[in-house]
Amino acid sequence: MSEISETTVDREIDTSQMKISSTEVAIDIVGMHKWFGDFHVLRDINLRVMKGERIVIAGPSGSGKSTLIRCINRLEEHQQGDVVVNGVELTNDLKRIDEVRREVGMVFQHFNLFPHLTILQNLTLAPIWVRGIPKAEAEEAAMHYLERVKIPEQAAKYPGQLSGGQQQRVAIARSLCMQPRIMLFDEPTSALDPEMVKEVLEVMISLAEDGMTMLCVTHEMGFARQVANRVIFMDQGQIIEQNDPENFFSNPHHERTKLFLSQILH
Amino acid sequence: MSLSYVREEMVPPQPAPVRTTGVIAWARQNLFATPFDAVMTVIGVAFLIWAIPPIYNFIFPTFLGGDAVPPGGTVEDCRAAGAGACWAYISARMSFFIYGFYPPAEYWRPNLVFLLGALLIVPLLWPRAPFKRINALLFFVVYPIICYYLLNGGVFGLRRVPTEQWGGLLVTLIISLVGIICSMPIGILLALGRQSKLPIIKTLCVMFIELWRAVPLITILFMASIMLPLFMPQGTTVDKLLRALVGVTLFSSAYLAEVIRGGLQALPRGQYEAASSLGLSYWKSMGLIILPQALKHVIPGIVNSFIALFKDTSLVSIVGIFDLLNTVQAASSDINWSSPTQAVTGYLFAAFVFWIFCFAMSRYSIWMERRLDTGHKR
Ligand SMILES: Nc1ncnc2c1ncn2[C@@H]1O[C@H](COP(=O)(O)OP(=O)(O)O)[C@@H](O)[C@H]1O
Ligand SMILES: [Mg+2]
């Protein structure tokens, strides 16, 4: 099992902007199944995410967490059921897939920055080539987001010259430059040295404070407690249990959840 | 005994105990480290002492202490007993080696082609030179058209010079440049096609690559020049040089495709995923993210293919095209210059010319590789 960490950010979370819409659906997954060859990796997934929700997905390694969020921007294809993102149903139609990807940002465990481009070029590439924004304007926006993740001074460097925490913050800024409506995080801190986890969590929390819709696969239970409005527990390709963080941690119902929590919390 | 320890005095840096610098230390480390090394060194030095003077005497002209006949010498000098390389013969036949049977009155046309090419290619290969886009457009689009009309003639009152009369270094450079420039995009497309998820495209690319790789270039050239006309409708002819160009290009593109595929496979999947998740289309993610990295990783392999192609151009001589090597070979039966060292000198000259170009390519690629290194480790 991946390491569980309890890193917390010691400041009050500003919840004034964290509004969960009761009408606007961001993601709607209905009866979704996925197989890798013969392996039934996701089974009967039903998940409705409202605009403004901050969802943490937890579960043992190999339970299908990554696969689930990768189905949301079609890095993986599902074989059965419906996935509707921002009102667009994901099918084999490439146009729709691109439409969804423009509006959904993704942050990976291993950052996946483009090593042959400078930080600034990493940030402006998609706005220029996907959104058709003029270069000067894209660079201005990129600097704004670099300031937001607190590393504007690194703009001219290459990813290889940055620390892991800095690279992950650049990766978040790169997604933000596309002004996504939804952000997906796949274990954004688990490849980082402990002292760098906090700087990345800080950025994620500030995103949540701005009202971003977020789906976050993470083992940062501190983050789940502080920021999430819902925690989803997955095992063997299924959603086993979901609840608000308080009840999820203090009052788990399913045996597997209890077992999982007993292993990670003392 | 206490476990606790605190350093009280810092140790200043001191010189290394054994001398590790200087000539003697270097020789001891590299030449005489073990008895076996020492023996090998002695044998090696003895071989050099035995081999170098005769080679030197053969290649270098009299005014540098050798036996070779410098340019301007006569055939009698070359026939004299003990004479070395007959450079006089090379310089006398130089225009044949450069232009082949191109009419001497029209030499200014290939010369202009050489000059324009040099003027365009130097800034193109020099990364800091400005106007890259215009430069590339001029070199890859305008220049070939100009070259064709300039060399071939038949327009603007230029005398027509059929390709049969082109030859020498001119033809060698034409074949290799066209081959290099055309095989690169074809190779990239083949490599991408081979990775395609569409089964038809994938199969076609695999078949093409495997077919061309499995057949020797000589066979391809023979088939192109002898068999192709049999299949063509009566009366239509495809220029011999053009057929060779197509053969060399496709042959080389199959090899390049495999080199590039290696680069594509070496890229981590995360790069493809990051590009997709930002909404980049297939061609944009290939052009902006995947290929720049993949090609950079395989620069040595690509240049290796280019060097191989450059040397393989000499095979076109077997279908009757007078490239550099073929002109050298043809000139070696020139009785006006017949001497014991005539043929050897010719081949030495050809080898030297090939070496210059290949060595330049090799050095340029090493330099470029260093320049493109953004210091990332994967
Ligand atoms: N591309 C793939 N092909 C085949 N099996 C895969 C692939 N990706 C993931 N799997 C398998 O699917 C299961 C779920 O993987 P994943 O979603 O990455 O789990 P998690 O993120 O919860 O650790 C694992 O058993 C994994 O081995
Ligand atoms: Mg995972």
TrEMBL record, chain A:
CDD domains: ABC_HisP_GlnQ (cd03262). This is ABC transporter ATP-binding protein. Belongs to the ABC transporter superfamily. Residues 27-261 form the ABC transporter domain. GO terms for molecular function: ABC-type amino acid transporter activity; ATP binding; ATP hydrolysis activity. Keywords: ATP-binding, Nucleotide-binding, Transport. Pfam families: ABC_tran (PF00005). It comes from Devosia geojensis.
Automatic annotation (TrEMBL), chain B:
Keywords: Cell membrane, Membrane, Transmembrane, Transmembrane helix, Transport. It is a multi-pass membrane protein. InterPro entries: AA_ABC_transptr_permease_3TM, ArtM/GltK/GlnP/TcyL/YhdX-like, MetI-like, MetI-like_sf. It comes from the Bacteria. GO terms for cellular component: ATP-binding cassette (ABC) transporter complex. The chain crosses the membrane at residues 38-59, 80-102, 108-127, 134-151, 171-193, 214-232, 344-362. Pfam families: BPD_transp_1. Residues 169-360 form the ABC transmembrane type-1 domain. It is found in: Cell inner membrane; Cell membrane. GO terms for molecular function: transmembrane transporter activity. Its main location: membrane. GO terms for biological process: amino acid transport. Belongs to the binding-protein-dependent transport system permease family. HisMQ subfamily. This is Amino acid ABC transporter permease. It comes from Devosia geojensis. The lineage of its organism: Bacteria, Pseudomonadati, Pseudomonadota, Alphaproteobacteria, Hyphomicrobiales.
